[in-house]
Amino acid sequence: MYLGLDVGTSGLRALLVDDAGTVVGAAEAGYPVAHPAPGWSEQDPADWVSACERAVAALRETHPAEFSALKGIGLSGQMHGATLLDASGAVLRPCILWNDTRSHVEARALDAAPGVRDLSGNIVFPGFTAPKLAWVAKHEPEVFAAVAKVLLPKDYLRYWLTGEHIGDMSDSAGTSWLDTGARDWSDALLSAGGMRRDQMPALVEGSAPGGTLRTELLKAWGLPGPVTVAGGGGDNAAAACGAGCFRDGQGFVSLGTSGVLLAAKDSYAPDPASAVHTFCHAVPGTWYQMGVILAATDCLNWLSRTLGQEPARLAEHVPDRIAGPSHILFLPYLSGERTPHNDSAIRATFANVDIGDGPEQLTQAVMEGVSFALRDCHEALKGTGTQLTRLLAVGGGTRSRGWVETLATVLGVPLDLPAKGEFGAALGAARLAIAAVTGGPLDVIMAPPEISETIEPRADLTAAYDEAHAKYRALYPQMKAILT
Question: How far apart are CA 432 and CA 420, in angstroms?
């Protein structure tokens, strides 16, 4: 048996699978996010440990025999979070999360430093780890002086599981301290951010062993041992493993809290100026490129809170078969935007709202605005030479067939909907554990999911959505000029 643990932003998901990758059991445990100031987003690392304990307890209760056969654990997690430890291993302050934008000034300075983009392969975004440490150095110097190790969220959980400071390439590529082409920490990048190599964890590939479960936990969990903990991966790399996307030409689009358009790459070809992320994949000799928007289903959640209607109820306003674009334009920049704008200051906008418009029209505009933002990501990826002829569509937003048909038409590519079952980051983490323990062929371990339906672009509406997207694109610079 193998366990996949995904340290998400709102909770931890645990997935127990057998050696064929078949899901045996699942458990979840939530935890809060703190927002102590505008633009801030923090979490207590102790909450991740508590959630893991609760999820494991649930699996041990519901599947005791299967859990007792555990041989490997894989880890996935939210990227970019800065978890700061002192020399004794104690946490120095709450973890600063991926969606925290307080370090925009420091990010700009690092991004402008000579060689930083060339070595890291990416723009330094405010959400990345390096500018967070630069912010801590400036605003919390006593904390910065005590930093002995910086761990990403999943790797702090690994530290609790194993007692070792280890990270993987895919997660570490989002720090702005990794030479993404060489797949190693860069002394030059570390120096630019005022950091040292000894403050970093050791690095392994995601499909390689990355520690063993400590004796105390073997005893507490009733395991004979040993249990290998795989290197694992950042959430998107792990999700790609769960979806079977790790070869050139394979990709997926995710309508989750944030939005992601990801393409696997057999070679390293970054284009930082496009605001496309180029990161190491969780398997050796492979990279991936992705466009990221900071709010996808989060936009629908925001509208839900504002209108006092559940998201599922709002989604019902959009029919399964779409009839064309709304007259309302929506820029989905509730927390700023990454691809293609790299703009932490811009905010969301509704334009051309009529007195007769209500929840139905606003919901359609929100779904279209998110789809247009993902088209911007697709155009940025195409600008780097990436060609995607079809995509796997995943995430909670895909429960709305109308949203998926909108997205397929806006992107101009067929979208494959997987059959019901697991295919996300927790499954990818479990698959990485299987690879780390067995050394089996990745093509077999990480097979793509069964497809239940393919949603084709609506050729009869393509021109109308192209025109609507052009208006959408023209709105951003105007709002930027007015509001910032």
Answer: 21
Distance CA 100, CA 291 (A): 18
Residue 207 has a pLDDT of 98
Tens digit of each residue's pLDDT (9 = 90 or more) over 272-299: 888 889 999 999 999 999 999 989 999 9
Residue 193 above 80 pLDDT? yes
Query: How many residues are listed for the chain in this entry?
Result: 484
User: Is 79 labelled as part of a ligand binding site?
Assistant: yes
Total-model pTM? 0.90
Exposed e or buried b per residue across 405-414, where buried means at least 16 C-beta atoms within 10 angstroms of its C-beta:
bbbbbbbebe
ω into 311 cis (within 30 of 0): no
Q: Which helix (H) or strand (E) holds 439?
A: none
Would the pLDDT of 219 be above 90?
A: yes
Domains, the chain, ranges and CATH? 2-237 (3.30.420.40), 245-422+450-484 (3.30.420.40)
The span from the CA of 3 to the CA of 375, in Å, is 35
The pLDDT value recorded for residue 271 is 87
Which residues carry out catalysis?
235
Using a CB cutoff of 8 Å and minimum separation of 24, what contacts does 312-316 make?
Answer: 312/399, 314/359, 314/363, 315/363, 315/399, 315/400, 315/402, 315/403
Residue type, 117: R
Q: Is 35 within any annotated ligand binding site?
A: no
- Distance between CA 318 and CA 304 in Å, rounded? 14
Q: Which tens digit of pLDDT belongs to each residue from 4-34? A: 999 999 899 999 999 999 999 999 999 999 9
Residues 6+ apart with CB under 8 A from 387: 249
